[in-house]
Amino acid sequence: MPEITEAELKKQIEKSSFSRLYLLHGEEKYLIDFYAKKLTAKAGGKVFPDFNLQQFDDTASIDEIASAVEALPFMAECKCVAVSDLNVESLRAQEAAKLEELVKNIPDSTVLVIYLPSIEIDYKVNKKWKKFIGLANEAGVTVQIKKRSNPDLEKALCSAAGKRGCELSRQNAGRIVRYCGNSMQTLFNELEKLCAYVKEGEITAQTIDQLVVKNLEARVYDLSKAIVSGDYDRAYRVLDLLFQQNEEPVSVLAVLSSAYIDMYRVRMSVQGGFGATEPAKYFDYARKEFRLTNAERDGARLTTYMLRQSLRALLQADTALKGARGDRRIVMEKLIAELLLIAEKERTA
């Protein structure tokens, strides 16, 4: 059978019309775990769940999984065997052959659910996973669960807040997404905290700013905005906070460099007669096109020369950090000073 969509998976779960095999994989780990729980609960049934629902993690051998799959259900039409994070890539040849044989011969009385709530797959280069996904499509169905777009995440947060007796506007839902990124697990954890604090009524922007923990990208974005606007005090406050939270200087520098690279790409695109989102055709901005529109806005006050000088300073700091020359904090503080001075010289020229 071919790969199916999430909508088709929902229908199969609702109607208890199961395939013999499910492989749930993809980027959105929260939903992979969510659908796996729904699927296993329904396929395992309510009759003697201790016998008819068997669950394994990545430590289980193929022989153990096979024994469970081949066992008959107890006083029920079917049973369910669930395996989380089965790492096909790490299997030796003998184990891989056993798994292939198992997948090809799943009894009609068993629903085997293999789901990957932690494992990331490089679909372009990983031949073992590519082969297994093809095999799974022949024996059952696969569902690739991708990251949600920002509008979809905002809608989901508003809906979830309403179910908890709270009100959340789309604008403030977008604020949470900007602070936390697009991981649904992180977003819903933060929403639970906000709803517990508010209890009922509106979740305001002030409450979000007070309670939501910003991810590294959001905090470094605040740093870049402070630098570009020439706000010395704020820039160093944000940098100090990043060090207090034990963020790796190399990681901070990588995100900060990305912000400047975004601004430079947009500048070159606009100067070449194209739109701000043109770089998305050539670089990896899938579901992150907002970075380019933000870069167009933030870089509007900066000249092309200033951007080039800033990129040179970022490269020098990267070399210093990776070469372990000097105190890492001093390297970062010196970089912020250089970036601020470059921006200030441009404004006063």
Automatic annotation (TrEMBL):
Its EC number is 2.7.7.7. InterPro entries: DNA_pol3_clamp-load_cplx_C, DNA_pol3_delta-like_C, DNA_pol3_delta_N, DNA_polIII_delta, P-loop_NTPase. It catalyses: DNA(n) + a 2'-deoxyribonucleoside 5'-triphosphate = DNA(n+1) + diphosphate. The keyword Nucleotidyltransferase applies. Gene3D superfamilies: 1.10.8.60, 1.20.272.10, P-loop containing nucleotide triphosphate hydrolases (3.40.50.300). Pfam families: DNA_pol3_delta (PF06144), DNA_pol3_delta_C (PF21694). One of its GO terms (molecular function) is DNA-directed DNA polymerase activity. It comes from the Bacteria. The keyword Nucleotidyltransferase applies. Residues 217-338 form the DNA polymerase III delta subunit-like C-terminal domain. Residues 22-130 form the DNA polymerase III delta N-terminal domain. Keywords: DNA replication, DNA-directed DNA polymerase, Nucleotidyltransferase, Transferase. Belongs to the DNA polymerase HolA subunit family. This is DNA polymerase III subunit delta.
